[in-house]
Every structure is written in C-alpha cells, then in structure tokens.
Amino acid sequence: MNALPCPVFLFSMDSDQFWAAPTTTGGLKAYYQAYGKQTSQYQLELIHFRDSDAVAAWQSRWHNTVLPKLKTALDAGQRPVVGFSMYTWNAAEFLSLIHQIKAACPEVLCIAGGPHVQQAEDYLFEDPIDLIILGEGETTFQEILDTPLSNPWTEVNGLAFLKNGEIVKTPERRRRTLLDELPSALDVIDLVDADGNCLYDSISYETSRGCPFKCAFCEWGTGAIGTKMYQFSMKRVRSDWRRIVDAGIKDIWLADSNFGALKEDLEKAQYICELKAETGLPSSFATSWSKKHSPRVQDIVLLLHRNGLLPHYQLALQTLTPLALELSNRKNMGANKYEPIAKQMASEGVPIAAELIWGLPGDNLPEFERNLDQLLRTFPNLNIFAYTLLPGTEFYERREEYKIETIPVAGYGKAKGEYVVACHTFDRDQGIEGYFLITAHILFAHGHLLPLSIRYLALQDNITTAPLLRKLLRAVCAEYQDELNDIDLSDRMVVYENRARLYTAILQNPEALYTLLRQQVFTYLDAANCKQHRDAIANIIDLDQALSPRVGGPTETEYSFNFDVISSKTALDCLSLPAPEDLSPKAQRFNVKSPGGVGTILKDPDGGGWLRGEILSPTIEVQTVRIMHPNVKPQLSPQ
Q: Where is the Radical SAM core domain (predicted)?
C-alpha cells in the first residue's frame, strides 16, 4: 500500500480584526500545484488564523489533530513541513508556535518566509527554524519540496540556514518579471462555504510588486521585494476581481506599494468602479498611494471617491524634518509638496489624511511639534505612528551608527519589533515624551474627543498645540489613575501601550471628562496669554462634546449652543477659522445622532472619527472627513 501524501502545513494570521483570505500562503500552494514535480506526494493545507486568540485555541488542540499526522509521516520515512508567513503583527505568536511544534516533533522541517525574517541571522541562531526564504517565495518553496532530502540546500537559491553552526546564504533568487506566470491564490482558496456564504470580510490583493523607493525605515524597497516594479496583466486582475466580488467580499485592500504610479493603475480603478456599479461591491478599495501624487494619482483618487469606494487618501509624509528626510532617503520625494494637494482634495470633500512618524533618526521633539502644528493646519486627519525598528531595513543595519536605542514592543522583543526611544538626534527622555505626545494626539484628535478644538487652536498664529495635548493627557492620567489602578499611568510608555483602554475608560462619563478638559484648556490659554480665545474655545468644546463617540446604543439628542454651529463647523472642517460673527452669541438648538458603540464596536481611538456624532441639519454642508480603519467595518457606520 502506498504511503499517504506527506503533510505540508502553511500558517498565516491576520492583523487585529482585519479578517481576510489567506492570499500569501494560498499563492504558495497554487504555485506548487501548478509547477511542483511531486504534487501527488504532498498534501498542502492552509491554516489561517483570524487573530492571536485563534492561535491559542489551535495550540490547545493540535496535539490531537496535526501532531498525529506529522508523526505518521515521519514513521513512513517522510519529512513533513510546516511553513510560516511572518509579518510584524504575527511574528510573536508564530515564533511561540514554532518552538512548540519543534519541541514536540524535532524532525519536522520548519520554513519561515516573509518581510519580518529577512534578517535571517536574528532568528536562525535562537529559534528552531530550519530554512528561511529570502526574497520572493513561490519558486524557492517549490524547489524546497522537490529537493531530495539527501541533497544539500545549497542547490536552492534564496535560502538561509545553519550548517555546522554557521549561517549559509545561497545565491539571491532572481525576481520574477512576468507575474502572470504565478497562478492565482484564488484557485486554491475557498471564498464561500458550502451554502454559498462569503467566508471573509476582506481580501489583500497585489496588482504589482516592487517599490521604486528605498526608505531607510521600510522593508518594501529592500532586496526582499526589489525596487523595480512589475505588474500583473489587466486580464488577470479583471478575472480575480470578478471572482472576489462574486464571492461577496466587501473590501479590497491592495498590497501595491505605489498605486497610481503605473499608467495601468487608472484602468484598474475604472474597472473596480464598473464592478461597484454593476454588483454593489466592493464597499471600499484601499491601497498605499504613489509617493509622487501625480495628476494621474489625483484623477484615480477623485474617481474612487465619486464612486463611494475611497475610505481614505493618505499622503505618507512620515516626517517634515530636513535631516530626518535626508537620512530616510525621502528628501526629494514628490509627496513633500503636499499643501496644494491637500487643499484641492479637501475642497472636493475627499477623505484625505497625512501620515507622520515619531522616532525617525534625524528628527527631534521640537521640530516634530512644529511639524505637527503645520499638518494640523493643512489636513483634516492625521495618522501618527511610533517608529518601530524593523529587521531588514537600512536603519536596522545602521542602528549603531545612529546610536539607536530601543525597547521591546509590548514585551515581545524582536518578534514584533522595537520602539525607537533615542538616537543621535534626540535623547531617551525626549524620545519617550514624543510617545506621550502622539498618545495625546491619538486620543484627543484622532479619537474625536477634541478634534475641532485642537484644529481651532492650531490655526491660531500664537498657539502651539503640543504642550496643550500633553497637558490634557497628564491631567487625564492623574484623574483616572485610581480607576485604572492595575496600570501605572505615570509611566509614559505604559500610557502609550494602554491608550485603547484609557480611551474607553474616560468615555464612560463624558460630563466628568469634558469638565476636566475644559479646565485644562482654559488654564493653558491663560498661561499662554491667550485669554481672548476663551469664549470661542468654550463654544467649540461644547460642539466637540456633542459629537464625541458614545457608550451604549444609537441615540438622538438635542443640544443647545450659543454660536453659529453650522458656519463654524463648516469653516473648521475646511481647515479655516470661523468668522468672528460665527462665534458671536447666537442661541441655537440641534439634534445630534450618535451611533454609540464605545467599548463594544469601538474599542480603541483609531475608530473615533468613524463613530462620531452627526448634526441633523439640512443646511450643513460638510461633516468631518471620515477615515475608515480596518477595526471598524463600514456596515457598522451611522447611516
């Protein structure tokens, strides 16, 4: 009797609540089924986890499900395989899983690939990984399975492994230029169940590979991906996208690095709009945009926006500080000319946002604060991130040169990256204070607690918002320390890592929260000799409170105001100061519709702008631009 096919388990995991089809490991399986020499001898199975809880649940039962299959294969003289698609968000869980599997079954062949393990020497000496795939993985994976166990791995390009205690790296795997030669992952992934119900909310899809930029903090333009861009044909894209919407998948999230940079990208956008008009799907279409933001990019943005497909248009500025731009290899990038783009898109009602990173070598806190104020005056939304040092990037390799100091991300060390807290241009105290500042922005601006108030103050010539943001956060931490007594809110990094919990806690009692915030804002204005803004900011804080996210279910509440709410809000939504007469005493009453959901639907401040309140008025022309976050699905938004 012939032995059963040798089992090959390919593991993948989504990030947070982004529930998407496993296209990465699906691509590996599809490629082997199309090009493998021993397809009948292997049984490839995809194991896709929704989140870390799903990993833990699998670990509790795998001894009764997967381990017997591995043991049976070994007894038959085979060498079963476990392969892991490693990214920053899943590396901690997968390293734990690798240790567990290898401890129970040391003879299993363990393969790791993906962006997070491209610095192979950080893993091979400490973790029981047998082979690390460097660069594109499809052909390398196929050749691994088709290489006899008696042959050395040196015959397979694009590999790193240990031999006699030393790392061996085989010749670089040449990138594939004809991407249509890669079979579609959709050939092997079930998108619907037996009853025809869609299995996934979203899908990550690439129409091109490569990034022409080599940003020092990013893995995209490194050797793992390459700087030259290649793309799939429109025939392939059309076929796959039709299959995706026919399955009922709501959101398509492109894995392209610079969408809009290629002339075919306009045709892709036109086709996705055709699908939307015909089928109603997808609900949204998100991507990483070209850094040049050319007229073609802007045409694509407007096309998607007019067809209700654009969750956000993000300009990945990352920093405005000259030295940080230079060290990051972004000095001459077209995205730096952002002001006219931002104004044009805001005038069209496009959900535009800018990205900013704190902690890049070459930056410092005073310049970052000036950059923050400048962008608050220019963009309706800012997404600010802490810089996490990632393996395989230029900054990672030059960490000693730039005197980069780090601390582990959430206690996971190399598995999930490292927070940069100091370098040659800012010391550790300044670095950690920067984390505290971005936490304050995430809560009060991005979390939609005081977005209009912060914008009003940023638009003033004589006010700096950064000290105020930190003052507000320190007051909140002091006020809520007893309530959150199991975390140390005097530790700025603890506050950053527990920002979601702090956010949901302070919104349990809005009256107490906004009484505290008003007091702190008034004190700050008095100390800054800006008392002339007291009456105006009092009005705007009232409006922010009325529109803030709420605990509980949907509500409709009447509020009284003492100024021209509609004119003032419209001006601020368009990044302009209200006229003096707009803020003059004028009694008004409006109903505000709130979707609720804090602590249930909304569990972190990233979705605050999505679940804000809306003024119910036929005359209002502009509502704060929405930025969709993967954790808050569009079907949960207020109608």
A: 193-429
